[in-house]
Amino acid sequence: MAKPPNAARFTPKEQVLTSSQLFSGVSASLVRSFAPACERLILGRGDILWMPADHIGHFHLVAFGAVKLQRLRPDSPVILGFFLPGESVADALVISRGAMPACAVAQSTVAEVLLVPAELVLAAAKRDAALAEALHAAVARQVLWLHTKIEVVTIGSVAERLSTFVLRLVERRGGTDSNRVEVPVSPTRVELASVIEARPETVTRALGKLAKDGVFTVTKSAIFVHDLAALKRIVPHETTECPASGVYVEGVDSSPSSHEY
Predict the structure, then answer these.
(1) Residue 209 domain flag
(2) What is residue 169's three-state secondary structure?
(3) Shared-domain flag, residues 93 and 167
(4) Are the CB atoms for 41 and 113 separated by under 8 Å?
């Protein structure tokens, strides 16, 4: 585990909980009540949150830095995706109590992750309609995440794949109102090649041209989008819609008739 430069950089547990995408729309008082049972992890690049087949009993909320999900392979890991501040890692598998098919690893130099006991949240969801709906929405986002992964590897040229990957990150950050955006993740050329299924040398050439054209650059600290309008013009005109959240979560019924309001 990494030692943070200054303890003052810690994000208060209550703030991580109430600002997380997972608990969006849920009563702040209910969400804050989870704080005493939560555990904070400070990770350094490469530190492991879990390994394949581990049983995960917590939701993992990213407070700072970035976490990547990857499958291990003898030659090189297969990167499945990145999770940014405000997001939580692999919620669908946590909710379904399934075994993880991949490992979660800190991608940034320092990452702060808040562990929220799953049983505590799932028990509360049986009594609270808004929380139950938030968990259903989390499962729907995982379906959308998989759709985006397929989109990125099938969209077209390497430049189009890279641009689509970056644009989807920007959309997840809610940063489409400005033409210049910073995304707090710093994938290596090898990681990007894995994400979009291309050769690292081809990715390097494409990134060089995109940077020269003033579209975006990938640095050791973040992805900097310099011209969002230009980025959108590169991405083929396809829509990615979040599926309806009619997803069954074991032990949780989010229908209005099953809850008191």
Answers:
(1) yes
(2) helix
(3) no
(4) yes
Q: Is the pTM of this model over 0.85?
A: no
Buried b / exposed e over 187-218, threshold 16 CB at 10 Å, is: beeebbbbbbebeeebbeebbeebeeeebbeb
Residue 215 belongs to a domain with what CATH number? 1.10.10.10
Mean local confidence (pLDDT), 76-93 = 89
Q: What pLDDT score was predicted for residue 178?
A: 81
**Does any domain span residue 147?**
no
Largest CA distance in the chain: 58
- Distance in angstroms (rounded) separating the CA atoms of residues 23 and 134: 6
Dihedral of CA 163/169/172/176: which sign?
Answer: negative
pLDDT per position as a tens digit, 175-185:
677 889 999 99
Which residues have C-beta within 8 Å of that of residue 87, sequence separation ≥ 6?
Answer: 20, 21, 22, 61, 62, 172
Could you read off the pLDDT of 148-200 as tens digits, one per residue?
A: 888 888 888 999 999 999 999 999 887 677 889 999 999 999 999 999 999 99
